[in-house]
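Re: duplicated header lines in exported C-alpha cells

Our pipeline writes sequence and C-alpha cells for each protein into one text file. With two proteins the header for the second block appears twice in some exports. Here is an export where it did not happen, for reference. First protein block:
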Amino acid sequence: MGSMPLLTKYKGRQPKYRGVNWREARLAALEIYGWRCVTCQTDLKAIPRGYVVHHHVPFKAFLIEEVANATDNLRPMCKSCHAKEERLGKTTTGRVVRQG
C-alpha cells in the first residue's frame, strides 16, 4: 500500500508581509508605548512572543505600506487582548464594526 495524501486544507501558519518598514515601525511602536499592552498595561517584555503589534486600521486597507505602518496606527497588545479585539470586531477608520 502506498502512502495516502493528507485530507486537510491546513498549510501551517503563513507569515504575513507587512511592508519594508514593518520591523522598524513595530519596534518604534513598542518603544512609544513603553513595551506595555495598550489595553491591560501588561509588561510585554515579561511575556516574550506573547504579544503582537496590532494595526488599528487594518494593513490591507492601505495602498501605501509606510502609511499603514505609521506608529499612530500601531498598537502593542498582549495576545489575550489582541484575541478579544479581533473577536469583538475589526477597527476601521476609528470605529468598531461589530461582526455577526
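Second protein block, exported in the same file:
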Amino acid sequence: MQENQRNVTEREMEVLQLIHLKMSDKEIGEKLHISEFTAKTHRQSLRGKFKAPTSAILREKALKEGYVPNTVKCSKFCNQRQIQSKQMQFEKQEQQVGKQERQVGEQERQVG
C-alpha cells in the first residue's frame, strides 16, 4: 500500500475497501455499523480527495495508487453472499474448461 498522500482517514480506508468491493452505501453502513447517510458522506469525501466524479473512477484511482489491493480477497468485510458468488463463478469456469477438454478429446478420437 502506498503512503497516504491524500490524508485518507482510517475509517475512510475501511469504506474505500468496501467501495472497491462495489458495495452500496446501505451495505457499507450495515457492514461498518454506521448509517447509510454516514457511509454516503464518507464516499463523497473520498471522491473529493481523489478528485473522482464517480465511484467507478474512485475505485480505479484507489487501485492504481495502491490504496486497495490489486486482487479482491475476502477480508473481514466479505459477506457470505460474496463468497458464495465467487465460488459459483469459479465452479462455472471449471465446468466450462472441463466441457472444452471433453470436446477436444472427442474431436481427437474422431480424427485418430
